[in-house]
Amino acid sequence: MKTIDEMLHLDLLTAEQHRDIGAWIARAGSPEEILNMPAPLWQAVERAAAVMGVDDDLMRPPALDAGDVVLS
């Protein structure tokens, strides 16, 4: 939810999209159910994630000077 809250704060999602996505996630009982989110909502999340560079962050190797981070 924190990510979609940030997307709303950055005006990358409308208040209606944020509400609908949040409600879908709250109702979902599993990650598989979240993946069944209606296409327009997924598209909104994907566009916002692209602007935020979420995929780039996930693909970046961890910093070796990340302090007390434990890698498993």
Q: In words, what does this structure look like?
A:
The protein is an all-alpha fold. Helices cover about 60% and strands about 0% of the residues. It contains five helices and no strands. The chain starts with a helix and ends in a 13-residue tail after the last helix.
Overview features:
5 helices; mainly alpha; 72 residues
Please mark out the parts with pLDDT under 50 across 5 or more consecutive residues, or reply none.
none
Give the number of helices.
5
What overall form do the CA principal axes indicate? globular
- Mean pLDDT, all residues: 87
Structural class: mainly alpha
Count of strand segments: 0
Biggest β-sheet, characterized?
A: none
- String of helices and strands: HHHHH
Percent helix: 55-70%
Question: Between the first and last Cα atoms, what is the distance in angstroms?
Answer: 25 Å
Beta fraction: under 5%
Gyration radius (Cα, Å) is: 15 Å
